[in-house]
TrEMBL record:
It comes from the Eukaryota. This is 10365_t:CDS:1. It comes from Dentiscutata erythropus.
Length: 208
C-alpha cells in the first residue's frame, strides 16, 4: 500500500555519502505566501534508472517519494525532476517556489472509525512504514478529516470505517504537534474479511 509524497521543493542542503550511493539532507516546500514546510530526504542513486536526477543545493525540483512522519517529515525519493523556473535573483531561493499544497496519498487499515468533529468528521488510519533515515520500520498513524455531507461524495465513508477496510485517502497534509492530518479530497476503500478457508469475503457477507 502507498504512502506517496509529491511536492515542488527547494533543495536546501545536500550531503553525498562517501560511497556515492545516496544523498541526504533537507528540502522546503511552500504552503502560503510566508509559510514553508521543511523535510528531510534520502535519495538513492541508480545508474540504470533516469528517474532520480542528481540533487544539488539551491535548486527547485519536483520530488516524488514515500513519506513517514517520525518527529518530523522524512521522504525517501523515488523520482526527482529539476524545474526550469524563472527566479527573482541569479540563484533560486524559497520565495521562487509556487504556493501549492503538497499532494499525498496514504493507504492503510482503519485504526479508529469515523466520528463527528465539529462540522466535519475524522477517522484514523495506521500501518507500519519504512523510514530510510534510520533503517527502521515504525507505526504511522494518520488522522483523516472529511466532509460527511449525507448528499456528498463521502456519504458512505463513516459506514465503511466501521467494517474491516483498507482505505486510501488523497489530500493536503497538515502537521499538528506530533500528529498529522490529511484534509481529504478523495477517499476510496476495499472491504475484506478473511474466512477460515482463506477466501475473500466482502463486508456484506458476499464473495467477490
Amino acid at each position: 500500500m502507498a504512502s506517496i509524497f509529491c511536492a515542488i521543493s527547494f533543495i536546501k542542503s545536500v550531503f553525498v555519502t562517501s560511497s556515492e550511493k545516496y544523498c541526504t539532507r533537507s528540502a522546503v516546500y511552500r504552503t502560503a505566501t510566508n509559510e514553508f514546510a521543511k523535510y528531510k530526504f534520502k535519495a538513492f542513486y541508480m545508474k540504470e534508472s533516469s528517474l532520480i536526477e542528481e540533487l544539488t543545493e539551491k535548486t527547485i525540483t519536483m520530488i516524488i517519494g514515500c513519506f513517514v512522519f517520525e518527529d518530523e517529515l522524512n521522504v525517501t525519493v523515488s523520482q526527482s525532476v529539476s524545474l526550469q523556473i524563472k527566479t527573482l535573483q541569479n540563484e533560486p531561493n524559497i520565495y521562487d517556489l509556487p504556493i501549492a499544497p503538497t499532494f499525498r496519498i496514504f493507504s492503510a487499515p482503519v485504526q479508529n472509525p469515523s466520528k463527528p468533529h465539529g462540522d466535519s468528521a475524522i477517522f484514523c488510519l495506521k500501518k507500519g512504514v519504512y523510514n530510510s533515515m534510520n533503517g527502521k520500520t515504525t507505526d504511522l498513524s494518520v488522522i483523516c478529516k472529511y466532509n460527511p455531507n449525507p448528499k456528498g461524495c463521502h456519504s458512505n465513508v463513516a459506514e465503511a470505517t466501521h467494517c474491516q477496510t483498507v482505505i486510501s485517502v488523497a489530500g493536503e497534509l497538515i502537521f499538528v504537534e506530533k500528529s498529522i492530518f490529511v484534509l481529504c479530497e478523495a477517499i476510496e476503500w476495499n472491504y475484506y474479511v478473511m474466512r477460515e478457508n482463506s477466501k475473500l469475503q466482502l463486508c456484506d457477507g458476499t464473495e467477490p
